[in-house]
Every structure is written in structure tokens, then in C-alpha cells.
Amino acid sequence: MTTKPSKSDSLTKAEVADLLTSLTPYEDEYKLAADRITMRGKSLAEAQKEQTAWPVFYGVRRAELAIKFKRMEVRVYAIRGRLHRFYKEHDALGSSERQIEKYVDANEEFLAANELLLHIEELYKKYNELMESGFEKRGYALRDFTTARVHDVHNEPL
């Protein structure tokens, strides 16, 4: 395999840098989520106001990450396909499909693209867990606190 595969769908260094830069705000916002999700030291009214705002904000961020993940997944599949075709066309040894797949899996370009894909997926899963376990449970807790307060008001003697 003496020639290099064409790189029409490959990721340039600038694209990788742009993608990593675009993920920085997501990582920073995720770090702030612990303070935003806690109700300690906040009034019930303040916690209720936050409950309507933060889940929407993090839900939009999660959707944006899902889109970035899908786009990157398409790029990884395109790179895999191009490399597979290249190795198959330039194979003088008659390698099996499994051997060709191992060549593709060990290719630096494919590994770099796949690593970016995994980074995006990790961030998406963090945001997903934050939404499903964090803000959802916070909403249930707020509902329970509010219900308890309402019942206390009704039990007050006049």
C-alpha cells in the first residue's frame, strides 16, 4: 500500500481545533450545573423560578450536542468507508475483510475522528444524565416541598 488515500472527507487540524473550541462552552456550563441544580440556601420561590429556566437551557444544550454527535458520526463513517475502499483497492496481499478492518481501525485519521466522536458522546451523555436524573428529580423534590407547604397552610388554625 504505497499511495495515500484521498482526503476529501477528512478532518483538518483547523476543523478539529474549531470543534474542540466549540465544545468548551458546553464543558464549562456542565461544570456549573452542580451549583445550579442544588436547592440548598435558596428560597422556594427562587428554586421554582430556576426550575423553569435551567432545564430548558440544558435541554437545548443537550439537543445541540446530539446534533454535533450525529454530524461527527457521519464524518467517522465516511472516513471509515473511504479508508476501507482505499485499503481494499490497494491490497496486493489479498487481505481478508477482517484484516482490512484492522488496518482501518489502526489508521491515525480514523482514530482521531473516532476520539472526537467519543468526546462529543461523553458530553452528550453527561448532559442527558443531568436532565434525566438531575433536573427531573429536582422538579419532583420541589413539587413535594410545595405540596408540603400548601398542606401546612391548610392545617393552620384560624
Biggest sheet features: none
The percentage of residues in β strands lies in: under 5%
Helix fraction? Answer: over 70%
Q: Note the gap between the termini.
A: 90 Å
Computed over alpha carbons, the radius of gyration is 24 Å
Give the strand tally.
0
Q: Any low-confidence stretches, pLDDT <50, length ≥5?
A: none
Question: Count the helices. How many?
Answer: 4
Secondary-structure-derived class: mainly alpha
Q: Describe the global form.
A: elongated
Mean pLDDT: 87
Helix-strand string: HHHH
Brief descriptors of the model:
158 residues; elongated
Could you please describe the fold and organization of this structure?
There is one protein chain. This protein is mostly helical and 158 residues long. It has a domain at 48-148. 81% of the residues lie in helices and 0% in strands. The chain is built from four helices and no strands. It is elongated. The N and C termini lie far apart (90 Å). 11% of the residues are buried.
